[in-house]
Amino acid sequence: MEHLLGIDAGGWLDKGVTLVVAVVIAWLIERFVIRLMHKLLDASNLPSASLFINIARAVIWVLALLSVMRPVFGVDPAGFVAALGVVSIAVSLGMQDTIANIVGGISLMLSKAVQPGDYISVGDVTGEVTDVNWRSTTVMMRGGAQEVIPNSVLSKTALTRITPWSVGYCGVPIAVVPGADLDAVADECCRVAARELADLLDPAFETDVVFTAFTAYGTQGEVRLHVRRDVVCSTAQDRLARALSGMPWLASAL
Predict the structure, then answer these.
(1) Phi-psi bin for 123: left (phi > 0), alpha (psi -120 to 50), beta?
(2) Is the sign of the CA dihedral 38, 43, 44, 45 positive or negative?
(3) Is the pTM of this model over 0.85?
(4) Are 60 and 30 in contact, with CB atoms under 8 Å apart?
(5) Three-state DSSP class for 223?
């Protein structure tokens, strides 16, 4: 009957068995590989590690499809691979920036050069890293403004990691008249800062005064403040400058 209808039942049965076996083998390989990758990626603490999982899963099933194209569907896989290569080239040309960002993100995550919670300075952007994903890195600057930096830019730009001491550092320059008691001036500056900036200063660091040079107007120095992370430096600088204005030991110019 099969020959009368032009149907080769045995051939279709063989193809069906081949397809089922290929699917089962691919499924078993996928489970083993995905479990192994989960263990490795969980240990690495990489964010969004599911991207690697999805890539591995896609590769396994593409290879499974290629293995059954000739015996089951009678299609030469070489032509399919060639067509896939052409499509891949076209897609890559149209997504150069996206691919560059993803590669940069993978590089940053594997090297752990930048992680959430770090304070960095990149170009004219300085602040706390709040998020690192495959395409971009988000930096929150003082005042609450957020800057989203493409990973392709971040991986090519010189990056400065800011120490905890420097995170909230704000300097207020002063000039002291000749003959003034510098120790007394430093003590008074610290007392005024503690009183006027109590709600702005970071308690983890002490306010101090350093004197660095002599000028025609007197001794040049700086009041070194450390403000909280949510405080804009200019706010503290303005308040202290107003509080110190009119002090008898303050020189008329720097």
Answers:
(1) left
(2) positive
(3) no
(4) yes
(5) strand
Q: What is the pLDDT of residues 183-199, one digit of tens each?
A: 999 999 999 999 999 99
pLDDT given at position 1: 46
Annotated domain spans of the chain:
9-94, 112-162, 165-244
Cα distance between residue 40 and residue 46, in whole Å: 10
Is the pLDDT assigned to residue 165 strictly greater than 90? Answer: no
> Which option is the CATH number for 165-244: 3.30.1360.70, 3.30.1370.10, 3.30.1360.120, 3.30.70.100?
3.30.70.100
In this structure, the chain runs to a length of 254
Long-range contacts of 67-71, Cβ-Cβ distance < 8 Å, separation of 24 or more: 67/22, 68/18, 68/19, 68/22, 71/15, 71/18
